[in-house]
Design brief:
The protein is α+β, with helices and mostly antiparallel strands. It is built from twelve helices and 19 strands. β11 (241-245) and β12 form a beta hairpin. The longest helix is centred in the N-terminal third of the chain and has 36 residues, at 6-41.
Length: 447
Amino acid sequence: MDIVTLIPQFGGLIWTLLAFVVALSVIVAVHEYGHYIVGRWSGIDADVFSLGFGPVLFSRVDRRGTKWQFALLPFGGYVKFKGDDNASGGKDEAAMAGLSEAERRRTMNGAPLWARAATVAAGPVFNFILSILIFSGIFLARGVVSEPLTVGELRPLPSVQELEPGDVIAQIEGRAPPAFDDGVAFESFLSNLPEQPVLDYTVQRDGAEQVVEGPYVYPPLASQIIPLSAADDAGMRAGDVIQSIDGDPIFAFDQLKEKVEASEGAPLALEVWRDGEVLNLTLEPRRTDEPQPDNSFRTVYRIGIAAGMFFEPATETPGVFEALGGAVSQTGRIIEGSISGLWHMVTGAISTCNLSGPIGIAETSGAMASQGTSNFIWFIAVLSTAVGLLNLFPVPVLDGGHLCFFAYEAVSGRPPSDRALKVLMSIGLTLVLGLMVFALSNDIFCP
């Protein structure tokens, strides 16, 4: 093989690894800092704060005696509190034996129950806070759609286009559109529009009302390419317009969905318009377990493109509290969808191939980074929520497992015995490693 042909692949691999390391490092740093700072506020001293594992590349000791370090393997991190046996916790009996009562109070194992519980819970909580802050920032930067619906930026299309930026849309085919943020009403409005490639738009322009022609509201336009999808693999780009499928002309995104779903995975020949050029691409739709509004799942075929209107709506900056509210709702939807997806995988309702491992996450990191900074930062927020949720699962070695131990202690008045803790931690570690191997096998063997 010509070594020149390997350069793009090598460059893509480096980019993917770099994006994955950056995303993971940010999330881990915030998670572990949550443990550290709440522990400090609770009167618990930390011996080590480490980003990465293995040989230490750089370190320094602060005035509190905490060693801050960067290690060679950037795939995680930890906080080792005073009195801990190792990075995973546990009691260092020899170290604890020589401490006074005041010194024991400043260890994780000697601190009051409330301080230990707060310190452990802080890691996942800080992950959720990170997600909320990122989502809020993106909502503030992107803005919310103005009302009434106003044309912002027109997307390039190969069809009739008489609208202009700044046009206020009063009617489409004689009907006034509902508020854009009323998803159900707006979707119902769109479904009742005539299915034709050109529609009449009544707009307010320069203080006067006039009727102009424009394309179907949602043309077969790829506003975004889903990473690792069939469209991504086929080389489609955001902004591509699909003009025909297997020789049949289409003008609406719903027509595209119908064709893809009816294919049942058979190859489709697409005629794609891109910046004035027509490309012929062939791709195979893939089975996807798609979440529904009632938290169930439906198995459908998809090619991996997101729909978009033929124009970018004009936006306005929301208030800080409005952005925070939307961010909290977005984080809640990710948590709800993740729990629902895991439950449906456990019960066999959907394929376990929906669970990605480190390779899949790394590939998605690289793909999102290649689509722009905003998309990559959004992905970090989504992944941060997922990491926070995963750590709350009641599995020993995870934060949720420790919180279960603390709950037992609160009810019984005494902690589990050291022997029981060691057994449970071994079981928990086995479960976590087993899950990692299973997810890795999904990355390798799932289509």
